[in-house]
Amino acid sequence: MFAISLGDGAELGPLEPWQAAEFLAHMDRGREYIGRHIGLPDVTADLDSARRWLQSYADKAAADAGRLYGIRLDGLLVGGVLFRVFDAEAGTCEAGCWLEPDAAGRGLVTRAVRVIIDWAVHERGMHRVEWHASAANTPSINVAKRLGMSRDGVLRENHPYRGVRQDTEVWSVLAPEWRAATNSH
């Protein structure tokens, strides 16, 4: 398997259906923390559902409609980044992330998302990369800020999550902004 170094013993690499047991063990370690703001732990409760979720991203990748990557720290799966939506024809995509609590605060997500945005903009010609986060998810909003994204607005009470309607902040970066900020063409 290939991996891209994120520094400090961290790597970014594929996360695929055959890794469902590893993914489930990771999710079990971080289930409560990860589930504070996103539903991933709810849809990956056992080995079969974990495998199905990973397969859904393998299918998205095959259809060029999404991507999924794991973040490993010293070889241990501790989180991931993804393109939940990837529309090459429209030139837009939505990036996202999750992370175990023991891996938080090290800049892993910011570094990993930089890698995938670079790929989306430079290799795939994406024009707009979005970031959606619960308005209550300060760490995720801080990632968007560190990536140089602009806050487009708030979708008020748009997402029912565990019985409560939450606001979603939408952040984005456009390709010319990304290239200017990263000094690349």
Please provide a brief summary of the model.
This protein has helices at 20-34, 40-43, 47-62, 108-123, 138-146, 175-182, and strands spanning 4-7, 10-14, 67-73, 76-87, 92-99, 128-134, 150-161, 164-174. With 185 residues, the chain is α+β, with helices and mostly antiparallel strands.
Q: How many β-strands, per DSSP?
A: 8
Number of helices: 6
Q: Unreliable stretches, pLDDT < 50, 5 or more residues?
A: none
Over the alpha carbons, how many angstroms does the gyration radius reach? 16 Å
Topology pattern, helix = H, strand = E: EEHHHEEEHEHEEH
| Measured distance between first and last alpha carbons | 29 Å
Give the neighbour order of strands across the main sheet.
1-2-3-4-5-6-8-7
Instruction: Give the biggest beta sheet.
Output: 8 strands, mixed
Mean pLDDT: 96
Percentage beta strand: 35-45%
Give the proportion of residues in helices: 25-40%
Structural class: alpha+beta
What would you call the shape?
A: globular
List the topology elements.
Layout: E1 4-7, E2 10-14, H1 20-34, H2 40-43, H3 47-62, E3 67-73, E4 76-87, E5 92-99, H4 108-123, E6 128-134, H5 138-146, E7 150-161, E8 164-174, H6 175-182
Parallel strand pairs: 5-6
Antiparallel strand pairs: 1-2, 2-3, 3-4, 4-5, 6-8, 7-8
Helix pairs in contact: 1-3
